[in-house]
Amino acid sequence: MLYLLEPVSAEISQKPSRPLVAASWVHTRDVRKSLADVMDDNLAQEHQRAHEVRVDRLTEALRPIYASMPKNGHGLLGHSTVRYALHRHFVHKHGMYVKGLDPSGDSWNSSSPADILEDKVPSYVQHLFEERLHDGFDLKELALLAATLEHFVHLESIERLKVAYRVNDLPLEQTVNSEQLAKVLDAFAFVQLVGGDTEKIDLVSFRRQFAKATDIFPEWPETQSFLRELQESILDNSDTDATITFAMASTVVEAATQRYGRFQDGGCRALAKELLAKEDHGSGRVNLADFYQAGWQFKESREYLRTLGALDESSDVPRVVIANYVASASNCISTSSLYSICCIDQCEELLAHLERRIAAVDATPEKIIELVAALPSATTQAPRHLSVSVVKRLNEIADTHGGRVPLHGRLFAQWMHHAYPRECPFPAEAGTTKPMTADEWLKESNSSLTVSDAEIAVLVQQAKEIADQVKVKDLADGDLEETLPWSAQEELVFHRARPSTRHELAVLGKAIATFTAFFSMTLKLVQMLKLGVSGKEGGASAFV
């Protein structure tokens, strides 16, 4: 949650943070110094209490996923698992895809989560995070990094609130009435949706765009209603007296930042519903031709869908994977320097439920089958009997990992897609996709972002001809999952390499040699003691 218990005042919000602890040698003098102490040193006094509240709250929120995550040799989370845990937290709680946490098509260990602190904290503080990550993070440190990221999100929101005051010709130190605040919040939301550098906003250009807000964002009226309801619930101030301070406005803005991801996810569910109406035999997929006919907004080209990882070309008829498409970058909005607001992954709640019940890094296939059979989703009723192919696939994963199924790997994510094809995305192999927004695609690719009506007509005709030729497999046995694609490529979030046979033999040889030497020394010592005793007895009789 991004809500501060003590709002930031207008005067405080304009002050730069007090000078940070300078000496870069601090981390070398005491690398194991508490990260909490360091962050307290680097936070202005007015933010410290709020930061402490965040850390305590986040510690409890992250406890279940921390308990289920694989640990390194020190019993701590490595940098790939820290990145994975934080990404899932921000997506599930706020619909935020924080830049630097999302792997963007690569493996989870492709970068460090501390990299996103660059240019935001002193270099020695970032280095300290890296030093601690070398050994690993405990739960408190994981929560501390999450709170630090939330702190930066808060600061960015305050800067955009200042812009909203400026475009409405309102001084920050001046109190406003509820009507004026409503205009400020509209301007703030528009700045969020447009994105870009707040320092380079041209007021004339902004106002010209703002006048066409509904044309630019069709859901703008719903966004305004969301802001009005939030304003009333937070301030409980319906009169027109000019009593609302910048601090009170910042409280509403923080709540809006916290809740907007959940609010806009309603549009994502409507998007998914339109595609599910044309779903191909309950597979969580829609034929590409039907995708283009599902609504005016579904126009992404085949090349763009493939790059997003939303296109299934494993059969003669290309199909769009609905869960992948809905959660893709093409549906993200509100891009800032730190994050984008995207559709919330509906599989997250299902996986989190399993993590809470299992409370371990892995489980037997029997235990997982028992839990999943009793776990309903928005489109799947429970209890249910899992199909033969789904049970078989899970046992194959267990066979690969010595009889147990790791919860945080590509194979289990793929299995969850088979168990819940409408909620859980199909996990592409690392490096085979490159999620990017429409703007990023246009800048990088020479291909068209959308398809023309003529191209759609050709595709529809081709799909009809193929459908007439191909006999659809009889799915009366209910084992639809057997028709879904499956790749045996495993990619664990954290992988501790198993020792090779040669290494194990070498260790065993050393152990045998050590034991032999110890046994030999012990035997000699016993012999010497015996000789010593007999010598004493013989010496005594000789000297008589």
Q: How does this structure look, described?
A:
The chain is mainly alpha-helical and 544 residues long. Among the domains are: 149 residues, no CATH class; 91 residues, no CATH class; 124 residues, no CATH class. 56% of the residues lie in helices and 3% in strands. The chain is built from 22 helices and seven strands. A hairpin with a 6-residue loop joins β3 and β4. The radius of gyration is 30 Å and the shape is globular.
Which tags fit this structure?
single chain; 22 helices; disordered C terminus; 7 strands; globular; 56% helix; 544 residues
Condensed summary:
It contains 22 helices and seven strands. By secondary structure, it is mainly alpha-helical. Among the domains are: 149 residues, no CATH class; 91 residues, no CATH class; 124 residues, no CATH class.
